[in-house]
Known about the structure:
Layout: H1 5-22, H2 50-62, H3 66-82, H4 86-99, H5 125-135
Helix pairs in contact: 2-3, 3-4
Amino acid sequence: MDIMSPFKIGFFVFLLGVCSAALGQGLKPFTSDGCSSFPNGTREENDLWLSCCTKHDFEYWKGGTFRERQESDRALKACVAKVGKPGIALLMLAGVRVGGSPFIPTKFRWGYGWPYPRLYGEHTESELEQIERLSRHFKPNHEIP
Length: 145
């Protein structure tokens, strides 16, 4: 493998995403992996902040503007701090700010429900309809536990 291979592979993945978006592939159904490579709680309380992560995943699934992402990340931090873990909340905030970028084709990036690449931006009316239709079965608790 030559030195340019990772670049070529990344560029190819980017082009595939552009092509799939151009073909009109829409929003996939909502999925959540909990706290994405992070524990869902403590040893004593395994799911202590899982509901915080699920709501955060819902926001990341649909994506939106950069400001909406910042608000979602701050809400995750506040939620985890409210269950009594302010130190964990800061650690999680750092993790999502670094790892949740829409520019990286991860399964937990901002806007992961849409074909890659899906960057920051306002949703169109058609996209809002897709979000509404696909999220009817899942209404996250908007209150912090």
